[in-house]
Design a protein that fits this description.
Blueprint: H1 2-70, H2 75-85
């Protein structure tokens, strides 16, 4: 009789562990899918930001060319404007600190 009770208890314990393990696995899989979706969204945003930056660079080059061609500015004026709007290198955050994506 004792062996039967121990056997039933062992079976119940194993079943409980199996159920908990299954729940934990499904929960982990769901978190993994959520992280994959967030990563894909972030990758899309980064790609869009890179394209916007490239577009802005092209636009600034076109603008500089037009200003030079029309005689509204010379190379010195453009260089002075670039220096004025270029961020100071000493102020830029170090990679992984400050304005990070974390």
């Amino acid at each position: 009789m004792f062996a039967l009770v121990v056997g039933l208890f062992s079976s119940a314990a194993c079943l409980t562990l199996a159920v908990q393990s299954g729940r934990a696995r499904r929960s982990s899989e769901a978190r993994g899918r959520e992280l994959e979706a967030r990563l894909a969204d972030l990758a899309g945003r980064i790609e869009m930001a890179e394209q916007n930056t490239a577009d802005a660079v092209v636009q600034s080059e076109v603008t500089a060319s037009v200003l030079l061609e029309k005689g509204l500015a010379d190379e010195e004026d453009l260089e002075a404007a670039r220096r004025r709007f270029q961020p100071n290198e000493a102020v830029q955050p170090v990679h992984g600190t400050g304005n990070s994506l974390h």
